Amino acid sequence: MYVDRSARRTAGRLSAVVVACAALFSAAGCSADAGSGIRVATDAPDAGASTAAADKGAGGQGGGAGKASDARPAPSMPEPAQLAQAQVNISDGETVGVGMPISVTFPQPVPAAERKGVESWLRVQTSSGTRGAWSWVKGHSLLDGQRVDFRPSTTYWQSGTKVALRIGSHGARRFTIGPSLVATVDARTHMMTVRTDGTAQRIPVTTGAPGTDTWNGTMVVMDKQPKVFMDSRTVGLGNTYHGYYYWAVHLTTSGTYVHQNPRADTEAGHRNVTHGCVGLASNGTAQRFYDRIRVGDVVTVTGADKDTVAAGNGYGDWNLTWKQWLAHSAAGATTTA
C-alpha cells in the first residue's frame, strides 16, 4: 500500500494511510478495506491555551457560541483520565461542511461504565443552541469503545454555526459550519445532483458495476487530495491498476472516493463501470467538483445494489435514526447553548 505524500493534503490528516480506489482497466471505483481513514487533528492546544480558545470560540472576543458560564455546569463526576489522550477530527479554527460530526478517538477502548463520564466532560457549545448527542460508534478498524461521535438531532448542522468543544481540561477546539453542500448520486440514472445555497446542478457520473457496487447511504467527505497513488494489490485485485488518480474526494474508510476517471468521459450518464467509487469525467468536471467541495460536505448514494454504509465506515453517522443514535449514547441528548 502506498500513497504519494508529495501531493499536499488539502484538508485534515489521516490516522492511517488509505489507498484503495481505482478502476479495472481505467474504470473508476474501488472496493477496499485498508487503514482506519479517520481524520485526526493531533495539534490540540495545551490545557492553558484550551481555556482561552474555548472562551473565545464560545462568545468571548471571538464572538461564537455563548460563554461557558451560560452552558451546562461542570460535571459532578471526576474528569476521566482517557481525555488526556483523546484525538479530535477537527482542527481549531477550521471550517467544515454541514455533515461533519465531531469524532473523538482513544488509543484504548473506554469501558462501558466510564463512557457517561467521558461524554459529560466532552462539552459542546454552539451559537445556534443545537440539540445533539454523543454516541459510541464502532469504527471500521477500531475496537468498541475507541470512538465517540457528536451529531445534531436534526439532519446536519445549521450553516454558519460556531461550535466549541472542550476536551475536559486537556484542550479545546472551535470551528465553523460552512455553507451547505449536499450531493446526491443516483446509481440507476447515473447522475449526481449537487445542491448548495438553493441551487442545484446535475452532473453525469458512473458508479459501481454489478458485483462491485457503490455503497448506498449518506457519507461525509473525510479528506481530499489532488492526486492519490492507487494500487490494486492493496485491495486484493492483483495487478489490475497501479498509478495516480486525480481530484480524489475521500468518502469511506473502506476506500470509496469520488474522483476523475477517463472512462467516465464516455460512460458517465450511461453505464456503471467502477469498482465502487463515483467516477467523474476528465474534461474539467472532476476538478470543478473537487474545487467546490470541502471536508464535511455530504454525498448520498441511492439506487445501488448494495447495503447502506455502516456508521463507522468513515462518517456514516447520518445513516442511523435519532432513536438508533441515542441507543448508543451513555449521557443522552443535550442542548448545546
UniProtKB/TrEMBL annotation:
The protein's name: L,D-TPase catalytic domain-containing protein
Native organism taxonomy: Bacteria, Bacillati, Actinomycetota, Actinomycetes, Kitasatosporales
Coiled coil: none
Active site: H259, C277
Composition skew (Gly residues), residue ranges: 57-66
GO CC annotations on file: extracellular region
Keyword hit for Cell wall biogenesis/degradation: yes
Keyword terms, alphabetized: Acyltransferase, Cell shape, Cell wall biogenesis/degradation, Peptidoglycan synthesis, Signal, Transferase
GO MF term list: acyltransferase activity; peptidoglycan L,D-transpeptidase activity
Signal peptide: 1-32
Species this protein is from: Streptomyces alanosinicus
Span of domain L,D-TPase catalytic: 181-302
